[in-house]
Specification:
Main location (chain A): mitochondrion
Shape of chain A: globular
Subunit structure (chain A): Heterotetramer; forms a dimer of dimers with IBA57. Interacts with [2Fe-2S]-ISCA2 forming the heterodimer [2Fe- 2S]-ISCA2-IBA57 complex; [2Fe-2S] cluster binding is absolutely required to promote the complex formation.
Order of helices and strands of chain B: EHEEEHEEEEHHHHEEEEEE
GO biological process, one term (chain A): iron-sulfur cluster assembly
Structural class of chain A: alpha+beta
CATH topology of the largest domain in chain B: Alpha-Beta Plaits
Family (chain A): Belongs to the HesB/IscA family.
Number of domains of chain B: 2
Structural class of chain B: alpha+beta
Strand content of chain B: 25-35%
Keywords (chain A): Iron, Metal-binding, Mitochondrion
Number of helices of chain A: 3
Helix content of chain B: 10-25%
Number of strands of chain B: 14
CATH class of the domain at 52-158 in chain A: Mainly Beta
Helix content of chain A: 10-25%
Strand content of chain A: 25-35%
Largest sheet of chain A: 6 strands, mixed
Strand order of the largest sheet of chain B: 9-12-11-10-13-14
CATH topology of the domain at 52-158 in chain A: Hypothetical Protein Aq_1857, Chain: A
Strand order of the largest sheet of chain A: 4-5-2-3-9-8
Distance between the termini of chain A: 35 Å
Oligomer: heterodimer
Number of strands of chain A: 9
């Protein structure tokens, strides 16, 4: 935990950045570009709010998503603190769905989709895949809208 | 009291995360009860609204239609509360101004209970009050319905008699008895009134409530009290301190009607002579544990 590198954010678990990797030949870049032009959910603009994916989230999604599956994040009312996150693997996109930031989703097959209503509660958050002794799961971390939550992390209340 | 209609496929699931009691019991297959008592708590575990849920739909094949009874002064506030947590749930929330809600209290003579008829056409629902047998039944009918047709031999009473009956029995109801953000559900005898499930999943305010139930001791409870002496003009104020004869703090007055009321009292002082402290006066006060409490409760 040194303080030598001020540019990178410290040894946290989740931060957005393009994956490190060897330089790739032009042919492969073209291949990625074509996958982005596929029809898909509209990318959320700055006014609607954006969500970010951590490296571990992208990695885990690539492991588990089959075919056209993507990770859906919803916010539901209820739970110990008022609102709770719900993760699921889904294949159906609806007109009011929004997709996580593209410049983090550099590999097709690792998509996170949120409907506009839920996005209002999670905009600016990061989705992480955290592996702990108690459980391994997708978690919403650093939600700028959320106030204290319940002890297990599933539920949160909102700053008004 | 006012009625709010909650309809839709997700009605029960929606309410489940917001209320202390197990709403799935209300909508279960087979011989499910038609009424359920519950509180909506805030995130800190304090009471916000005391409600009674009624199941209007008769079978699980029909679209769920639940009525929610609440204090009429918080109808707008509870609607906002529900809408805040609705998000994308497939439910509609609408007031029901064309319905009227009645409390049917058993008469003095024994045998009145068995003579209660089944629902007539004008009654949407007639069901035992889920809180306690001493509260009789709840009746939901269209506004202007003829009650003596629905329940022959009954008389329309004065609402003040209803409140006096509640205070005599020790049944809190509404925002005066259960001030939002102040009252605690377990101290308000929610468990004795069949209003809470300790085996259901998460709901708002569950953490403190479950922890108190499993690990804590409940030292104070809302108790029915009576003031035998002369009463001050305007009644006893909410929050008035109650003391033992030795001057030790025993609790606080909550609300009342005439010489009857409810007070939050330390159970240790139950049965002792007590008094309410008012500016320039001390009124004698007596507290008793209600008959309908579980026998081991008054400790």
């Amino acid at each position: 935990r040194g303080s030598r590198c001020s540019a990178s954010p410290g040894p946290g678990r989740a931060r957005p950045r393009p994956p490190a990797g060897p330089a790739r030949p032009a042919g492969s870049l073209l291949r990625w570009a074509s996958s982005f032009s596929e029809p898909g959910p509209k990318e959320s603009g700055p006014s609607e709010g954006q969500i970010f994916l951590s490296e571990s989230c992208v990695k885990r999604l690539l492991e588990i998503a089959e075919g056209s599956e993507f990770l859906r994040l919803q916010v539901e009312g209820g739970g110990c603190s008022g609102f709770q996150y719900k993760f699921s693997l889904d294949t159906v996109i609806n007109p009011d769905d929004r997709q996580g930031r593209r410049d983090v989703l550099v590999v097709s097959g690792a998509r996170v989709v949120v409907d506009v209503d839920s996005l209002a509660f999670v905009k600016g958050s990061m989705v992480d895949f955290s592996q702990e002794l108690i459980r391994s799961s997708f978690q919403v971390v650093s939600n700028p809208q959320a106030e204290k939550g319940c002890s297990c992390g599933t539920s949160f209340s909102v700053k008004f | 009291r006012a009625l709010l209609g909650v309809r839709g496929a997700e009605a029960a699931a929606f309410l489940q995360g917001l209320l202390t009691n197990d709403v799935t019991q209300l909508v279960a297959e087979g011989d499910a009860p038609r009424a359920l008592y519950a509180h909506a708590l805030n995130v800190q575990g304090r009471c916000l609204y005391d409600v009674i849920l009624y199941r209007l739909h008769r079978s699980t094949a029909e679209e769920p239609h639940i009525l929610l009874e609440c204090d009429s002064s918080v109808l707008d506030s509870i609607q906002k509360h529900l809408k805040l947590y609705k998000i994308r749930r497939k439910v509609t929330i609408t007031p029901c101004p064309d319905l009227s809600l009645w409390a049917v209290i058993p008469g003095e003579q024994p045998g009145d209970a068995s003579s209660l008829p089944k629902c007539a056409d004008q009654a949407l629902l007639l069901t035992p009050d889920p809180r306690a047998e001493v509260m009789g039944w709840r009746l939901i009918a269209k506004k202007g319905a003829n009650l003596s047709e629905i329940i022959p031999g009954s008389q329309v009473g004065d609402i003040q008699d209803y409140h006096r009956h509640r205070y005599k029995q020790g049944i809190p109801e509404g925002v005066k008895d259960l001030p939002p953000g102040v009252a605690l559900p377990l101290e308000s005898n929610l468990a004795f009134m069949n209003g809470i499930s300790f085996t259901k999943g998460c709901y708002i305010g569950q953490e403190l409530t479950a922890r108190t139930h499993h690990m804590g001791v409940i030292r104070k409870r809302l108790l029915p009290v009576s003031l035998p002496g002369p009463l001050p003009a305007g009644g006893v104020p909410e929050g008035a301190e109650i003391l033992t004869q030795a001057g030790k703090r025993a609790g606080r007055f909550r609300a009342g009607a005439g010489e009857l009321g409810l007070a939050l009292l330390r159970l240790a002082h139950l049965g002792e002579p007590l008094c309410v402290r008012l500016p320039g006066d001390r009124l004698e006060l007596r507290a008793t544990a209600p008959e309908w409490w579980p026998k081991a409760a008054a400790k």
